[in-house]
Amino acid sequence: MLKDTGLPTRWIRFDRNGRPSFGVLHDDDVVHEYRGDLFGEKEPTGERFPLAGLTLLTPSEPTKVIALWNNFHALGDKLKLPVPAEPLYLLKAPNSYLPANAPIRQPRCEGKVVFEGELGIVIGRTCSAVPESEALDHVFGYTCANDVTVADILHRDASFAQWTRAKGFDTFCPMGPVVTSGLDASKLQVTTWLDGQQRQHYPISDMRFSVSQLVSLISFDMTLHPGDVILCGTSIGVGSMKPGSTVEVEIGGIGKLSNRYG
What we know:
The protein is built from three helices and 19 strands. By secondary structure, it is mainly β.
């Protein structure tokens, strides 16, 4: 089953000489290549490559990325937000998906651009109207993500909150570098660094809706497909980026997602 009870495994997608492939990352610097389906039958090819010589791809190829709002107690309490009765979410546009190490492009409009370090849930099995007790069987693993946003756009028009535009610019959804299976998400912590300075450090256990609740409840709204990603929302410490800044989102057991802005 997809729910791995063994040691965590860090799966990575990459391009080598113009050919996309995937494999398992060992010792942070060597990739053991596999063939087949990342979310289905697969086997090792026997090839091994230095990570430094590979171009990373997004950890999956999602049909959609779902991003949560107001899903952490600490940030919700700080902003004095009402407690949601159900998950509040939006969709990130496919043009926003970006792999690790690739640059986040500066938008052509003016406004404050902010980082939001987050945990991403990667779906591994088609999921529709799944009860909470079975939700984790549909989770392949977890990845790091940065839900980049032009904050000034959100409420610029009093008649319409512009969530899609503010979060949908090209390259505004970095994800990676790997997707790790076999983790207990409730024990994870997200740390975000801006130019080497820690800006966020918060536990996933502070989520209003757990991983199993998110997967189950969202699956009653829309079918989740293998490779789809749910961004769990963020917590205290969100801040603005300046052109030339480097943002790193680090989660123990997964790794560090690094992208330069501008």
